[in-house]
Amino acid sequence: MISDKLRNQTSGFTKEIQTLLNGTIADHVQIKAVALPVGDDRLFMLGHLLDKRTLIAQRFPLKPRAPKVELWMDVSFQMRLDAEREHLMVQQSFVGVFGSKDAKHGLFHYDYERNKVDGYPDAHLQVDASSEFFGTLNDPKCDPGRPLGALHFPVGGKRFRPCLEDVIEFLAVERIVQARDGYEKLLEAGRERFRKNQLMAAMRRDPETVDAFIERYGAREGA
Predict the structure, then answer these.
(1) Which of 103, 145, 174, 194 has a CB 3.0–4.6 Å from the CB of 98, allowing a cystine?
(2) Inside any domain, residue 222
(3) Hey, CA dihedral for 175, 99, 51, 109, is it positive or negative?
(4) How far apart are CA 93 and CA 123, in angstroms?
């Protein structure tokens, strides 16, 4: 049976993501959560109108500034409790922007897969673009014709990877999509929560550094 702690924390995170998207660059996004058994563990899959049978989340449309252009966003998460069974943890996440509801290639996508086993960085960015110069750097024996979009750019690892708010900010400030008035406040609030959660997680995993900090700087009021 899935613990109430996992279900309750996942429910709260689901609402945060839905509120963030609908309050900034999207309309009528409905983030659904589906519980799955994984060996002796449990996890929740999250996504827009996630199908319980296929476990596939649907993309949702954005409003591009350019006329007569489609733009769709794909957002999904896999969540579980950490090793101590106390805190909600992202097992995998995907955020991508595409030119149609079903397109295989798009503008870019951010991926995160905890403890990725294929040698690529856990957190990485892939940009669907071309580069004549990069083509000259491919090893013809190993990677002939490898496109720029196949590269996995590391983006901060499990602790300091970009959050969904960063992607939304990029789309807004680069004038790719239309954003709602005052969207910046939602981004800053969400980003602050994310960073504090990541900092707390880092502190739990590295108590020696925490002790060293306290020994050096002491407990400061208002810090």
Answers:
(1) 103
(2) no
(3) negative
(4) 9
What total number of domains does the chain contain? Answer: 1
* 207/19 Cα distance (integer angstroms): 34
Q: Please, what's the b/e burial string for 101-129 (b: 16 or more CB within 10 A of its CB; e: otherwise)?
A: eeeeebbbbbbbbeebeeeebbbbbbebe
Indicate whether 16 belongs to any domain: yes
Distance in angstroms (rounded) separating the CA atoms of residues 93 and 154: 15
Please say whether the beta carbons of 194 and 165 come within 8 A. yes
Full domain range(s) for residue 181: 4-217
Q: Which one-letter DSSP state was computed for residue 66?
A: S
Long-range contact pairs involving 49-55 (C-beta distance under 8 Å, separation at least 24): 50/76
In the block, which residue shows the tokens 């309309």?
Answer: 27
Distance CA 165, CA 167 (A): 5
* 47 is a domain residue: yes
Strand partners, 72: 61, 98
Per-residue pLDDT tens over the stretch 158-212: 999 999 999 999 999 999 999 999 999 999 999 999 999 999 999 999 999 999 9
In a domain, 223, yes or no: no
